[in-house]
Design a protein that fits this description.
about 300 residues, 6-stranded mixed sheet, 7 helices, about 30% strand
Length: about 300
């Protein structure tokens, strides 16, 4: 599910977008949520402002409105789910444990700066949504250059996984009666009851990021702008499809002399319907390695 909020420079009082956004934010519901947000709103390299289009004041105001709005969505959603679960006798979360969220810097092609919102749920930090200040080029290309604002995308499957304690997103596309029968009626939220799961097959892939020669004698450095974790995930999913259960970073290393950066990811291959043979997993993994080199220009280790 996706959504957006926009303001029009020509319509806000005195053309002051930042002031108008701040005024709108005062109308939003407040909460007592525990929020971790340790990073500055923008960073020239990690999370840049669109300096040709937005002032610092505008970005600060839009980001604050965005975060307050989406935090409110999380509070409403998880609070209602928690109450419904307890009323039904399903303790999917500890009622005494306060809800916690945190903002993490991210990269998305249509927003900048960008963030992901993570929720601490049942002992782990889990990504719920991605968002950011909308790229102004989108408005310009749409013929409305006077507009600006923020946008978000939330994975409804991921939210359902959290609320129903469903461990594997692929179950939503399963036709297994043992899964479908658990959610065949419009009852209150209830905990998913797991059934037999086939064994996992873990494979690691390590690689050096593509490097470049720094100016003024800067030497070789990893070019972080050529690599985004989302690209890595897309390649793995495009190759492995439903046979990939999850992908997790397990190691990071920077060479002390060259400054080159190495990453290691662990891929869990597992079929929902059968035991996956090691030979099959090896073939998929080799294809992933080839695609990483071809698409991202990394150097395998």
């Amino acid at each position: 599910m996706e959504g957006a909020r926009m303001w029009n420079r020509r319509e806000v009082p005195e053309g002051d977008v930042a002031k108008a956004v701040r005024a709108d934010m005062e109308k939003l519901s407040k909460h007592d949520l525990q929020v971790e947000d340790p990073n500055p709103t923008t960073h020239p390299e990690r999370n840049p402002r669109q300096s040709n289009h937005h002032s610092s004041e505008e970005v600060e105001a839009i980001a604050a409105h965005l975060k307050r709005s989406l935090e409110g969505v999380v509070v409403e959603l998880f609070s209602r789910a928690q109450k419904a679960a307890h009323a039904a006798g399903n303790d999917i979360a500890d009622k005494t444990e306060p809800l916690q969220v945190r903002w993490v810097e991210a990269y998305f092609p249509f927003t900048s700066p960008s963030w992901e919102l993570e929720v601490f749920w049942q002992g782990d930090w889990l990504e719920v949504l991605g968002c950011g200040v909308t790229k102004q080029d989108l408005y310009i290309n749409a013929g409305v250059p006077e507009k600006l604002g923020w946008a978000f995308g939330i994975g409804l499957e991921r939210v359902a996984m959290l609320l129903f304690s469903i461990p594997d997103i692929r179950l939503f596309w399963s036709k297994d009666h043992r899964f479908l029968s658990q959610f065949s009626t419009m009852e209150d939220i209830k905990t998913y009851v797991p059934f037999s799961i086939h064994p996992a097959c873990y494979k690691d892939v390590s690689f050096w990021l593509r490097s470049y020669s720094g100016s003024a004698g800067g030497g070789i450095r990893a070019n972080r702008h050529d690599f985004h974790e989302n690209d890595m995930m897309e390649i793995v999913r495009s190759v492995g499809g439903d046979l990939v259960e999850d992908v997790k970073p397990v190691d990071e290393f920077v060479h002390p002399v060259s400054g080159r950066k190495s990453l290691c990811y662990r891929i869990n291959y597992r079929s929902l319907e059968r035991t996956l043979r090691n030979e099959e997993a090896n073939e998929l993994h080799e294809d992933v390695r080839r695609q990483l080199v071809q698409s991202l220009g990394v150097e395998l280790r």
